[in-house]
């Protein structure tokens, strides 16, 4: 049987970053393990933004600004991206990367914890698309908060929902803390599948991605 990571790496060979800075960011992230989206997942997210003509986007977890930049490039000039990050060093580096590409008018970084009620986030709602790429243990809580900020028939994308394939064999995970985290991710996946106000599909791109589309009011009344 083909290893999931090998297949994901194969898919990534067919994706290409838009500029040298993004390629440098990918190399740095791989070298010192900065959590950015895998290339194949990022490429799909960009296509999803184009398909849905998403112009107002919320991102939970800025890191070094990689996803924000690529989403802004896919969405176009009239984009508004609000990205939440609590790590000051990450915010500083992300700001430098965003300004290097003159995208500061499209991308606003909000300093704070994504689990908190942040006025800058609420004031920009509703969002066409929300990306959850923050602490996995908080996924369910973050989704609940996000759902109220989403436009009718908007989309919530959650990254890393397969957690390196560990969700398929939780009992084999020996370390207690890791086992607890994997169980949390698995529980979140079940939580998504059981929601009646969203339609969710799970995709085997990158490290697993859930795409949840908010049902319209008319659909919810059926």
Automatic annotation (TrEMBL):
Gene3D superfamilies: Vaccinia Virus protein VP39 (3.40.50.150). Keywords: Magnesium, Metal-binding, Methyltransferase, S-adenosyl-L-methionine, Transferase, tRNA processing. Pfam families: Methyltransf_3 (PF01596). Transmembrane segments: none annotated. GO terms for molecular function: methyltransferase activity. Mg(2+) binds at residues 133, 159-160. PROSITE patterns: SAM_OMT_I. Its EC number is 2.1.1.-. Signal peptide: none annotated. GO terms for biological process: methylation. It catalyses: 5-hydroxyuridine(34) in tRNA + S-adenosyl-L-methionine = 5-methoxyuridine(34) in tRNA + S-adenosyl-L-homocysteine + H(+). The keyword Metal-binding applies. S-adenosyl-L-methionine binds at residues 37, 67, 85, 113-114, 133. Catalyzes the methylation of 5-hydroxyuridine (ho5U) to form 5-methoxyuridine (mo5U) at position 34 in tRNAs. Homodimer. HAMAP family: TrmR_methyltr. Belongs to the class I-like SAM-binding methyltransferase superfamily. Cation-dependent O-methyltransferase family. This is tRNA 5-hydroxyuridine methyltransferase. It comes from Sporolactobacillus shoreicorticis. The gene is trmR.
